[in-house]
Every structure is written in C-alpha cells, then in structure tokens.
Amino acid sequence: MNESIHVAPEVADALASGRAVVALESTLITHGLPHPTNVETALAMEAAVRESGAVPATIAVLRGKITVGISAKDIERLAGLPRDRVRKCSRRDLPIAAALGEDASTTVAATLIVAQLAGIGIFATGGIGGVHRGHPFDVSADLVELGRNPVAVVCSGAKAILDLPLTVEVLETQGVAILGYMTSTFPGFYARSTGLPVDVTVQTPEEAARIIAAARRLGTRQGLLVAVPVPEPDALPNDQVERAVAAALSEAESRGIRGKAVTPFLLERVAELSGGTSRRANISLLVNNARVAGRIASALCRMAGP
Ligand code: PSU
Ligand code: MN
C-alpha cells in the first residue's frame, strides 16, 4: 500500500476481506453545498452506502494526511471550514496540501487517484466536471483522471453548468464508457435527461457489475461512468435549468470568475436563482447515487464469490 495514504481500519478490513467498499468525495462538502446541508448530505450518503451493504470511504486530506474513510467528526470539521480558505484538491494540488499539512477536500479527479491507489473500484458523486461552456480549453481534470484510473464512477452525468455535448465527446476520447442506469440517455444532473445517447443501458446493479468486472478482467486502465438520473420527484425541467444556468454563467463572466472557483460559484448562483429547487435535486441525486453505488459494489462482491 502507498505510504502516503492512510486508510481507516474499517475500510482496510473490508478491503482485505473482499467486502464491498464505495469511495465518496469531499469537495461537495467544502465547496458544493452550504453548511449544514453539506454535513447532513455527506452523512446521508454514507448511510445510503451502508444500507446497500457496502462500507463508505469518504476521502479527504486531514492535516496533510491523505485519508480514505474519514470520520463523522472529520466530515463536520471540513464542512465548517470557510470555503475560500480550504484547498479544493485536484491531481496537481494533492502534494501541496500534503506537504503543507492542510485540511483539504478532494475533487472527483483527486478522489479517483486516491481510490485507485487504495484498491477501491467504485465511487459515487453528484456530477463530474467537464468542458466549460464557451471555454473549450477549460476542461475539468475529472475527465482526464477518468481516462487514467480504473474506477467506476456513479453520477448523474456532468454538472448542468457545463457544455454537455462536448463533455461526452471528451469522455469518448478518454475511452470512458457511459452506462445509462435505467435510462437510454445521458442524465442532465438537475434534469433527468440531456437527450444525448449513452453507450449501453443497464437495468440492474448486476448488469452494471458485469460490465465493470469485464473491464477489470481486460485490465485496460480507464474508468467508466454509471449515469443515474436524479429521482423523478426532485428533478427539474430542462428549460428551468437552462434559464438559471444562462443567468449564472453571464454573471460569472462579468465578474471575471476563473479557474477552480467557477464551478462552486455557478452551483451557488443556480441554487439562488432556482429558489433552492436545484439544491434539493442535487442532494437527492447525491444520496441516490451513493445507494446505487453500494448496490453495484455489493453485486460485484457476490459475483466474485466468498
Ligand atoms: N458533484 C456535486 N457537487 C460538487 C461536485 C460534484 O454534486 O461540488 C464537485 C466534484 O468534486 C467535482 C468538482 O470534481 O465539483 C468539479 O470541479 P471543476 O469543475 O473545477 O473540475
Ligand atoms: Mn476548470
């Protein structure tokens, strides 16, 4: 095991005995949701993973230690840190946070790297990063790491603030298959569908697990996406999402928001502009994705046998 990574005893035991484990990221705690919704949602995601028979492993950097399976206390501590003072770690930031002894969160990109190093093959989040609208060279490192790390990411597509057709193109370039979970179209994060096609539709956790197992046997190094639409009762209509996203984007442009600040700013503004309905959708899809990831991880363990 990589010496720079600390794995909590419960997670280490589960991995050693071949039990199901699901990785969870921490940027949604520090930058994706406001306090105390962030704590509640992170804990609800862990509970959903447990209910589906798997062990949750929320990943973050704690006082410089890259940790797999942080405690509820640590989740609360991270959640209470001021957003502008906590580092949102992508691949490039991990060594900085580690060397400076910081408390920091991990994005999808960094969580993929750490999960892979720890031997965890399933990971749940809300929406991955992607290609930004009007900025085709602002491409989230999430897409690059998906191409490099053999981990299945359960998500509701990419965040609606992005250029989704271009994001799907880059996923194709990176060799990342999209499995539509009970859907034949790529989900639109707050909305159930973008109308873009997926590579294959799966109807059950077992069907998803079979494809993930085949990828592992083949030994190709890329990840794949299991794309799960937001639960129907909390979904927003596409036109409502588009109106809020367009307004938030033009504000970000005029305020000159750049780099890693773009996504947190847009999520926050869309939530305000939608009267909180986008946030409700975001929480709902996060918890649902954690549940689905737990079921797929459990199905993979059953396939592997005792
Ligand atoms: N999913 C959510 N909320 C979030 C994120 C995902 O529902 O805040 C985070 C993930 O950590 C993802 C990051 O990696 O947003 C994308 O940031 P960027 O666009 O700067 O790569
Ligand atoms: Mn970016």
Beta-strand content bin:
15-25%
Q: State the end-to-end distance.
A: 23 Å
Secondary structure: helix percent: 40-55%
Report the total helices.
12
Shape: globular
Give, in order, the helices and strands.
EHEHHEEHEHEHEEEHEHEEHEHHH
Roughly what is the average pLDDT, rounded to an integer? 97
Indicate the low-confidence ranges by residue numbers: none
Major sheet characteristics? 11 strands, mixed
Secondary-structure content class: alpha/beta
Number of strands: 13
Bound molecules: pseudouridine-5'-monophosphate, manganese (II) ion
Radius of gyration: 18 Å
Structure notes:
The structure is a single chain. With 306 residues, the protein is of the alpha/beta class. It contains twelve helices and 13 strands. The strands form two sheets. Strands 1, 2, 3, 4, 5, 6, 7, 10, 11, 12 and 13 form an eleven-stranded mixed β-sheet that branches. Helix 5 links the parallel strand 5 and strand 6 (104-106). The structure holds pseudouridine-5'-monophosphate (PSU) and manganese (II) ion.
